[in-house]
Amino acid sequence: MNRAVVIGLLIAAFATAKPAFADAIDGEWCSPQGENLVIDGPQIRIPSGKTIQGQYQRHEFAYQVPEGEADYGQVIYMNLINEELMQHRQFKDGVTGEPETWRRCNVSS
């Protein structure tokens, strides 16, 4: 995917995101399928276990899938819904995928 297109998608995603009323997107997140990822500022450990850099804002995160991954070149965008939930979307060939809700892993009350 063209770098300019990726940057444009990231800008559009951040511009259209709804604000969250939670602390920050940082932390460990689990998908309904059992995948997990960890966000720590601009650094992310993606579900494959690779650690890469992404575009970080307090309530949002986006990254381009790195070479060697099944979805290489695609953009993943996440935004915080609340303290325990986030939406995870994939941009594939310029089309926004359906949002998937991920939960914080190991949340204790």
Mean pLDDT: 86
Shape from CA axes?
A: globular
Write the element-wise H/E pattern from the N-terminal end onward. HEEEEEEEEEE
Strands, total number: 10
* Derived structural class: mainly beta
Q: Uncertain spans, ≥5 residues at pLDDT below 50?
A: none
Count of individual domains: 1
Radius of gyration: 13 Å
> Helix coverage percent of residues?
10-25%
Largest sheet: 10 strands, antiparallel
Q: What is the strand content? A: 35-45%
Oligomeric state of shown chains? single chain
**Distance from first to last alpha carbon:** 42 Å
Helical segment tally?
1
Highlighted features:
13% helix, 109 residues, mainly beta, globular, 40% strand
Characterization of this structure:
By secondary structure, the protein is mostly beta strands. The chain has one domain. 13% of the residues lie in helices and 40% in strands. The protein contains one helix and ten strands. Strands 1, 2, 3, 4, 5, 6, 7, 8, 9 and 10 form a ten-stranded antiparallel β-sheet that branches. The longest helix has 14 residues, at 3-16. It is globular, with a radius of gyration of 13 Å. The chain starts with a helix and ends in a 5-residue tail after the last strand. 21% of the residues are buried.
